# Entry
Amino acid sequence: MAATTGVTLELDDIQAGALYERPSPYVGTYLMLRIADRADGRELVRRLHRIVNPAGAADTPDNTSLTVAFTYHGLKALGVPQASLDSFAPEFRQGMAARADVLGDVGESAPDHWEKPLGTDEVHVAIAVLSSDEEQLQAAIEKAHRALTELPGVELIWHQDCYQLATGRTSFGFKDGISQPAVEGSGRRPTNPHERPLKAGEIVLGYPDETGELPPMPTPEVLGRNGTYVVFRKLHTKVAAYRAYLRTRAASREEENLLGAKMVGRWQSGAPLALSPDQDDPELGSDPLRNNDFLFADDPRGFKCPVGAHARRANPRDAFDQDGSVDVRLHRMIRRGTSYGPMLPDGVLEDDGIDRGIVFVFAGAHIKRQFEFVKTQWLNDGIFIGAPLESDPLVGPHDESSGFTIPQRPIRRRLQNLPPFVVTRGGEYCFAPSLRALRWLAELDT
# Structure
């Protein structure tokens, strides 16, 4: 099923990093900037416009890309008129830190504990530089740094190096980034042959979405069209605690691996439980034509893949088709998980004090009904699966009463006292404008 029918995307105007897959493996870095002087900020945008990769361009050398996005405070610092600022989504204008209670970022994950300056009004510009080649990455980073040359009114205030291993595995040991929606008009085919491409307006502003309507778009049109909202989150992973929890509840290494797979919904190789419920199948996990070729409706009670498993919560697929209670397609999003920090060596069960985890990036046209809905209704809550006291076993905000149910015959198994395995270190709501919008921002004369 090709992702080309029904709509023509203006690919030469859309930032490639917001729409297309990353190379694998890759190395990269995230940069956060503050704009202290409006004129210098606009000159920075003018320079960045020349080096941002459009989605319609041929592949760059070594799949190297640079993507730029702005926070609400960043657009304000550039002098975007207030009427235009007011036309952005309310969640974007408020910022992620202000919505911490809604998102479940409390306790250790509360903004008071975030890495500064994340979550403050000091973060204005976010730049992502990624490449499959270390030398090309450094060349691209140098271009970004040259854009700052002789601009004293723009300051680099935060950066985070990141990478993806050749195995695609993150710090918890599981292959990630397997299930992504195809976008109508992008020219990319879906990895799940059972799933038709998403309407373009679910990801890119200015096109009809799954409701058949145009999603709300910032004004003027040149600013909003072909842009997309970007959610950035830095998540610290408690890998040793996760391993130790499984070790104390398993009688063997095989059972340990099975419990981990039940919590995630996939084996570490990427093989889905829906297709290989009893044992890992590395050949299946490494096959992009097969490892996402499944649905959940044939397993309503979760004997193969628990209904509360992380992968099933994040994307229930066809699980709600029969009762029609939820249109899953309204909550799909482009998700990117990027590792940071060194991997904890195999077998280590004690925390070594080194910060490691995942930088999570989401792109879509609807912050509230995509990212925030999935985070609050599917990951943090269990009402939709009939388990209101259970949250996502891997990334949920656990307390001493948290548990996870594994359906099995003759008696289900319930894991008790799940500790938190993921802590939010910071995050931002951003907007990745089109190339025309970047030029408009650079030429502002307010």
